[in-house]
């Protein structure tokens, strides 16, 4: 970041004039004139009013729901500087860039800066020139930083503390950051300064962890809907997953997206293979050098049409609003992880897609990783429960979105926009077949894999069947009415749902679990989906965001080209200038004056002044 506090007009000085009846800007006035939005969404207004009045808050709001405004606007309404705890350098850099574009005096302190840059920012902070200062938890907890903040506290110049990505406090989550556990220091040493903790991902258990560990017992809780209606959820059984992924990506040609893989090796191999197929794909995982990771992330943020192939090391802190898809080549570890990762798509509110391919082997692998981990038994128990909940999501024959929201304690109706709603799966009662499969595993000693058990069930007199005399068992030939492929699917489902376990120490033998007993006793049924026939769904040249019929696509393209060039000149990501949703609205409305342009969502006073004439000229010359 060059010139940490250069060219930053103090927000309170640049907000449009108020009426004579009021002496300070209102929250709505700030929303409209600084950030360019006409009205608040959901609980934003109530949260802002509460925090602006000095109250503590715990805010759960989905990605793209406008969490940042819940502390940024109070920071502008209250006297002093707001301190924002942010876990990643990339996140704070993007947010500071976006605030500066809106005319807000914001800066950050982190390890990417020189001593001179940090000294300049510190001077600006002490001089009262900053509305918001972003810091990493490690930086905040340093004795020097705490001492600096205590000086400001004594002068009553800290307006609030905002703890972003507060789920990082949870030791059960994959985004756990040990430093977050020490943020209770804010309660202990800065009593009276309001605190707001925010996250997009927290089940009831994680919410309680946040409250206890951050000492927010008296904080007011704001829980918004977890629904992201613009995201379409699709989950497929693995059947040549690379080709399935390639077909999916071809439907999203020219769009930005993320492909998640479980291992670093798979990330690199998948990125290289996609590049060979003509896809602009880049790898990202914690094992790559810092320079390569930073370079790839910068390209993803600042260029269009980049596909980032990554482990879960990538994502938190990525503010890119026009990610049009998130794909999973492997099963995530939990519904919380899946929700957070898929939530990185469609932050701008325009249509996006969450696609996953999975197989029973994914479940086997993750259960093995849990069993072999060094965690305590309580940790393993919770990890297994979260994995089982995710298996329930991928196995459901009902609405995916409804199932997902139910996990977070939210009631909903069928969405009509997921794969199961759009193409309801056919199912069959596989109870008798499942009993046969379990009986065969038991009768043969629970020491063989699925291949041999299928041979016994189908009455195949192979050498191995003869060697073990399994043609003499009561289960020999009792499943000859089903095809081998159907039996393999059934065994995968028995493993995925926990009725059979894989014994890795005995050559992947299948053994019965306690979960199998109710089925064998006739106390439960076993229903399976019938795999759909594979159809190639072509969307051709469809591009997002869609421009209505009659609106020249060329104007939208010209606006994006202008935005890209402007972003390069400003050395910021393109979406920091304007999001696609704003450009789309300009292309549709075709404003002819600054007043008409000011009515477009996402254009505040500062951006209107900086870019208004250029945009009007583009609209006029486009015809």
TrEMBL record:
Catalysed reactions, as listed in the record = Couples ATP hydrolysis with the unwinding of duplex DNA by translocating in the 3'-5' direction
* Pfam families assigned to the protein according to its UniProt record, in alphabetical order: DEAD, Helicase_C, HRDC, RecQ_Zn_bind, RQC
| Domain spans labelled Helicase C-terminal | 241-398
Question: What is the protein's given name?
Answer: DNA helicase RecQ
Q: Which cofactor does it need?
A: Mg(2+); Zn(2+)
Q: Which residues form the HRDC domain?
A: 549-623
**Protein family (similarity comment):** Belongs to the helicase family. RecQ subfamily.
| Species the sequence originates in | Pseudazoarcus pumilus
One GO term under biological process is: DNA replication
Q: Which gene encodes it?
A: recQ
Which is a Gene Ontology cellular component entry for this protein?
A: replisome
